[in-house]
Design goal:
It is a single chain. This protein is about 60% helix and about 10% strand. The chain is of the alpha+beta class and about 280 residues long. Helix 9 packs parallel to helix 11.
């Protein structure tokens, strides 16, 4: 394997079997003069594919133990969620965990204001976050605070958004997380029911809201091709229309966003499913 560029003593950029650039981790890989041909590939402990060099650069100041913990958590998340995650997840997560481990040395605990919302909206990712704390302790010997489960979960959700895992996406995750909880409370108040967070209808509703928030946040709206159908549905399903209107009012007041007739129609469809689930 051709090793191209040192990132740190144990991490380097290399050329993969498909002639693409990959990041490899292994003891002493970064020591020899670059570039060089690695003859004994058994020293490679972990390989990361599809990672931009600029993202991989954050590893220069990250310990091997933290990197392996982050990689273990990312692998666990991919298996548990059965979805494609951004290749940058192990690195962005390692960057955060390195700070978390360092804060522990100084006995500093930083509260996360979204702890309740994240556990509420993303229970699977939060559960992975809790397990991730144990992985960090096993790999590094440091017991980071339980609140870090929220941060781990947010990094995982961010990696689910559109495969980029960028800072802009993290802002989206923060906004969508708080919005989803607020909207869930609006639906429950409007319909006078308690939603089953484990139901298929609710999971679909949350997925729809995540993409709706992303579209509204980026200034885009669905083309309105069904205004007449929306007006008819508003007459036929007055409760769902009132609920969708309350959600739209929330978006306007909280973020200065507004839903088109098309988006209101889709909200009403999901609300009707929630009521019958």
């Amino acid at each position: 394997m051709l090793i191209l560029k040192k990132i740190n003593n144990n991490v380097a950029l290399a050329v993969g079997e498909r002639r693409d650039e990959i990041v490899v981790f292994g003891r002493g890989i970064g020591f020899p003069e670059m570039p060089y041909e690695l003859e004994d590939e058994s020293v490679i402990q972990r390989t990361f594919v599809g990672v931009d060099e600029s993202v991989a650069g954050v590893l220069a100041g990250i310990s091997d133990e933290v990197l392996m913990a982050a990689s273990d958590i990312a692998d666990m998340a991919a298996d548990a969620l059965d979805c494609k995650l951004a290749p940058s997840l192990p690195f962005s997560l390692a960057d955060h965990l390195q700070f978390a481990v360092s804060r522990d040395d100084e006995s500093i605990v930083v509260a996360n204001p979204l702890s309740h919302e994240v556990a509420f909206v993303y229970p699977r990712e939060h559960e992975i976050g809790l397990k991730g704390i144990a992985i960090v302790q096993e790999r590094t010997g440091v017991e980071i605070p339980e609140v870090e489960a929220t941060s781990i979960a947010l990094h995982i959700v961010n990696a689910e958004v559109d495969g980029m895992g960028s800072a802009q996406d993290m802002d989206l995750v923060m906004k969508s997380t708080s919005s989803i909880q607020a909207i869930t409370e609006i639906v429950e108040a409007q319909l006078g029911i308690e939603l089953d967070r484990t139901s298929y209808a609710y999971v679909r509703f949350v997925a729809h809201l995540r993409f709706l928030v992303r579209r509204l946040m980026r200034g885009g709206q669905k083309e309105t091709e069904n205004s007449s159908l929306f007006r008819q549905a508003a007459r036929d399903f007055a409760d769902a229309y009132c609920c969708a209107s309350a959600i739209n009012n929330y978006f306007i007041k909280a973020h200065n966003w507004s839903c088109s007739d098309e988006e209101m129609l889709y909200l009403m469809m999901h609300i009707n499913r929630l009521r019958s689930s």
